[in-house]
UniProtKB/TrEMBL annotation:
InterPro entries assigned to the protein according to its UniProt record, in alphabetical order: DNA/RNA_pol_sf, RT_dom
Protein name (database record): Reverse transcriptase domain-containing protein
PROSITE patterns: RT_POL
SUPFAM superfamilies, per the entry: DNA/RNA polymerases
Domain of life: Eukaryota
Annotated coiled-coil segments of the chain: none
Every Reverse transcriptase domain range: 163-338
């Protein structure tokens, strides 16, 4: 019986991989068909517009709001509170806590390699690796524009990045983001916390984050435990699924109970405290310059919320990793590790 269940699990994993391939293939087909604006694409556009409409939302007192401007204000208030730090901890407290833990350190030679200056070729490679067809940031310039003119733009971007590091702040347009919200499956459409925030960043900011992410992703497998499979290069979620079934269907001592516990961290990305994140990077042995690049991404960022074609005033963020930023999932993995 156990063997049959184990084989069924293996089969489910294979069929999942096949489904992902077919989904990718179907998306490619829709892209090719999109130039003709066929019935499938037209239906998808209508459905997407309908899904983005938020007809009503509950405010902080639980009263239903149907006015589009009030709905937008509700979301702005929700995210302004969510992105406000709740536990400002002193560096000494964080240092004492992290020193008490057994945390691996990256190889000093690898740490030094992360510190090297950017090159135009590295920036061009990062631009060309980015996915096309994504929504642009507030300035309206899409990925395709930067790919088309990558050779001309790379030296200019490199100068902007280096000047920003010297000044310890990014230009205003690189600190701005517009938050679009997407309703989570199975959640109440009347609650602000039922929506997933996606930060639309300007491409120059995403390119900087992409360059840093490509450097960081090669290091993480050496310092992140095998238990963490999300967002780590060459690791997949079904690794842990397979491990779980191996444990469940392996012989266990008689009378020893087995328990499977599934936990979910609410608004996990949005609650990452920056002070803790920077201290964790230091504890792992990352160099001062690389950490300074990370700090640069999180120095005085601002955001506005877009709902029903209404844009809220911009407000300052005090914590969280932006969903939509190439660095966000990698930094979340680092924050979770200790």
């Amino acid at each position: 019986m156990k063997k049959r269940l184990f084989l069924q699990t293996e089969f489910d994993i294979l069929t999942t991989q096949q489904a992902e391939y077919l989904l990718s293939k179907s998306r490619h087909g829709c892209y090719e068909h999109g130039e003709k604006i066929g019935r499938i694409l037209a239906h998808q556009l209508r459905q997407r517009t309908a899904n983005q409409t938020i007809p009503a939302i509950n405010d902080e007192q639980g009263s239903k709001c149907t006015d589009s401007l009030k709905i937008n204000s509700c979301f702005q208030n929700f995210y302004q509170v969510l992105y406000t730090s709740e536990c400002p901890t002193t560096p000494s407290v964080l240092e004492n806590f992290l020193r008490s833990l057994h945390v691996p350190s990256i190889d000093p030679n690898i740490a030094d390699s992360l510190e090297k200056d950017f090159s135009a070729l590295e920036i061009i490679s990062a631009i060309r690796s980015m996915q096309s067809g994504k929504s642009p940031g507030p300035d309206g310039y899409p990925t395709e524009f930067f790919k088309k003119f990558s050779d001309q733009l790379a030296p200019l971007l490199m100068s902007v990045f280096e000047e920003s590091l010297s000044l310890k702040t990014l230009p205003l347009t690189m600190r701005q983001a517009v938050i679009s919200v997407i309703l989570k499956k199975g959640k109440s459409p009347l609650e602000c916390n039922s929506f997933r925030p996606i930060s639309l960043l300007n491409m120059d900011a995403k390119i900087l984050a992409k360059v840093l992410a490509r450097r960081l992703e090669g290091v993480l497998p050496s310092i992140i435990s095998p238990d963490q499979t999300g967002f780590i290069k060459n690791r997949y979620s079904f690794f842990n699924v397979r491990r779980l079934f191996n444990i469940l269907y392996s012989p266990s001592p008689p009378g020893v109970p087995e328990v499977v516990l599934s936990l979910d961290a609410e608004k996990a990305f949005d609650r990452v405290e920056w002070g803790y994140l920077f201290s964790t990077l230091e504890r792992f042995g990352f160099g001062n310059k690389f950490i300074s690049w990370i700090r640069l991404l999180y120095t005085s960022p601002i955001a506005a919320v877009r709902t029903n074609n209404n844009l809220s005033p911009f407000f300052e963020l005090k914590r969280g990793t932006r969903q939509g930023c190439p660095m966000s999932p990698l930094l979340f993995a680092v924050a979770m590790e200790p």
